[in-house]
Fold this sequence. Notes:
With 259 residues, the chain is mainly α. It folds into two domains: 51 residues, no CATH class; 195 residues, no CATH class. It is built from eleven helices and no strands. Helix 7 runs antiparallel to helix 8 and helix 9 runs antiparallel to helix 11. The protein starts with a helix and ends with a helix.
Amino acid sequence: MAGGLPGENRGLAGTGIQPAKLPERASQMASAFRKVTPGQDPNSILQKSSKENRTMPEINYLEILKTSFTLVILVFCSILSLTFTLERWLYFRRIRTDTENFLQRIRQLLEHNQMTEALALCDKVEGPISVVAKTALLNRQKSKGEVLDLLGAVRLEERVKMERFLGILGTLGNTAPFIGLFGTVVGIIKAFHDLALSGSGGPAVVAAGIAEALVATAAGLAVAIPAVIVYNYFMRKVKVISVAMEAASMRLLAYLKMA
């Protein structure tokens, strides 16, 4: 009897099947033979059945959205980000000014003592540069120090207007990844909880749950990356316009012969 065992082990080694997996293999073969039709190879049925067992079901994103409160929050964040991005884009498009051409026209009007026309031009052109110019023209009778203080105050007020809602975009860019990560952690906890309740299924059950949970992280990054890009883009525009306002202030003082 002892002499027969090595032969049996060699037979199993030749098939590549481990002894511990014999019951599972036998079950798969029995299922395959039940499905076989005349003229069909049972091995092909067995391979197809094994492949189907290894295939993880597709992720239902709509179902995940219904059951995950973090994804609902991220959808709301994406709507906020898109809304404020569009609002700021329209605002900066509206205040876009050819600063050089505008100041040259102001200088020409001042050289001809056409103060009324210069003020009308400031009212016609919309934007921070025209507001700074109008402030300088209206307060031209005051001392240089007073005009400088007034122009500094106007620049600060216009910068606040330009930075409106940008703090929200920056906050969304910073917090959205953490919201997604929180959703992923909650999803992983739920996946292991479901595994403990089912008592079977093995890694496949956990893998499916983790795959669904990682959707929250991907959604958080999808919200955060555009928000950060847009925030940096608009902050760059704010900086450029702020420098243009300061330069315009100095030039206007020179035009008014206050330098």
